[in-house]
Write a structure and sequence with these properties.
The protein is built from 6 helices and 2 strands. The protein is mostly helical. The protein has one domain (2-15, 43-150). It has a two-stranded antiparallel ribbon with strand order 1-2.
């Protein structure tokens, strides 16, 4: 539990005080997309198939610490530093490095006991994170397009 609380505070504080390259509407919309996607994926992979979960099987209030403390901050940090103006190899390296960090963080979350695997593997995570990060980039591009069109 301490790993979750400490990492939530660190990620959240950093995401609040880092120099922002994103607008408030970009941050707000991408955070809520990420949380909605995460909730929907968890409904099936955790709730229906019990492949992984937070703490123990079933719903617990303390899971909200992870959902509110980790996902918004990581989404904001990832997109804030995404190299939009660089060539595709730089973008690919950035996504791979962030995915590697995510797998390492997941490993530490499992070891600390706030997350568990029950049929899920780190290989699945290593394959999923790049896709999820890429989806976040696409969503941010859509948000930017919608904002431009609304002006």
């Amino acid at each position: 539990m301490w790993f979750l609380i400490i990492s939530s505070v660190i990620f959240s504080v950093y995401s609040i005080f880092m120099p922002k390259k994103l607008t408030r509407i970009e941050i707000f919309s991408t955070i809520f997309f990420a949380m909605t996607l995460q909730d929907n994926v968890d409904i099936y992979l955790d709730g229906k198939y019990d492949l992984y979960g937070y703490f123990t099987k079933g719903i617990q209030w303390k899971t909200l610490i992870a959902i509110i403390g980790i996902y918004p901050a990581v989404t904001t940090i990832f997109l804030n530093y995404y190299p939009f103006k660089k060539q595709w190899p730089n973008k690919l390296v950035y996504i791979i490095v962030c995915s590697g960090f995510a797998v390492l963080y997941e490993y530490m979350a499992v070891k600390s006991g706030y997350f568990y695997h029950n049929g899920w593997t780190y290989t699945y995570s290593a394959l999923s994170y790049p896709i999820l990060f890429f989806i976040l980039v696409i969503v941010l591009k859509i948000v930017r397009k919608l904002v431009r069109e609304s002006i």
